[in-house]
Amino acid sequence: GATSGAYMLWDESADDLKLVGAAGFTVAGDIDIDGTANLDVVDIDGAVDMATTLQVTGNLTTSAYNTFSVADNNAPLTLASTDADANAGPFLDLWRNSSSPADSDLIGSIRFYGENDASEAIIYSQIKNTLVDVSDGTEDGWVEVDVMTGGTLRSYLNFYPGESSFNDDAQDIDFRVESNGNAHMLFVDGGSDVVNIGG
User: Fold this and answer.
1) Per-residue DSSP letters for the chain?
2) Which one of 17, 58, 109, 124 is least enclosed by Cβ atoms within 10 Å?
3) What separation in angstroms does the CA of 34 have from each of 31, 37, 43, 196?
4) Who wins on pLDDT, 26 or 186?
5) Integer Cα distance of 122 and 149 in angstroms
6) For 107-140, what is each residue's pLDDT tens digit?
7) What is the DSSP string of 20-62?
C-alpha cells in the first residue's frame, strides 16, 4: 500500500516505473529484482542472505560479532593492498580505543583454537599484548606468547620493556639454538638450571 494521493507513473522514455507523491511504501510479499537496484540509504532490520559477491566501495563498519567461515583450506579473510610504492601495506590494526586506558590493560590477543578429541574448543597458542605504562611520553608495552603444554596454557616468551625472557613462569621449558651441524649448539635446560654450549 502507498500513502494517500500517491500514484504509479510509467515513464516510457526512460523505461521506468515511478511511485509519485509517496513518502514511502510497504511490500508485504517478496521482491524479485533481475537488474540493478540503486538505493541511497538502506536500513535492514533482519538478516541478509547473499548467494554471490558483496562489493563495497566505501567503508564497512560493523558493531556486532562477525564470523568468516569456509568449507575448505582457503583463507576466509584476505587483506590486500594494490598500492605500488615503498610504504608498507596492507595493515592489520588491533586498536583498543578506550576512553580511560590504565596500566596493565590487556589491549589485544590473537588466539589459535583447535578441538581436542572430546570436541572441546581449546586455545592451543596465543599472543597477548598489554599496556605496561600509559603515561604520555613514557609509554611501555608487553608482548607474551603462550603455548598449550600438558593441558595448561603456559607462558613461553615475553617481550618486556627493556628485556626479553623465556620460561618466565619456571615451567621447565628448555631453550635450544641449532647450528648447521649441531642440534644443541646452545641449550638451556630449564629443569636442571644448566647452559650447554656445543654439547
Assistant:
1) -B-TT-EEEEETTTTEEEEES-S-B--SS----SS----S-----S----SS----SS-----S------SSSS-S--------SSS-----------SS--TT-EEEEEEEEEE-TT--EEEEEEEEEEEEE-STTS-EEEEEEEEEETTEEEEEEEEETTEEEESTT-----EEE--SS-TTSEEEETTTTEEEE--
2) 58
3) 10, 9, 21, 73
4) 186
5) 12
6) 999 999 999 999 999 999 999 999 999 999 999 9
7) ES-S-B--SS----SS----S-----S----SS----SS----
- Tens of pLDDT, residues 150-176: 999 999 999 999 999 999 999 999 999
Is the peptide bond prior to 76 cis by the omega test (within 30 degrees of 0)? no
d(CA 21, CA 31): 21
Cβ atoms 143, 158 nearer than 8 A: yes
Q: In the prediction, which pLDDT does 26 show?
A: 76
Q: What is the reported pLDDT for 133?
A: 98
Q: Position of cell 521506468?
A: 16
Closest CA to 168 of 195, 141, 144, 132: 144
Contact 77/68 with Cβ under 8 angstroms? yes
Bridge partner list, 116: none
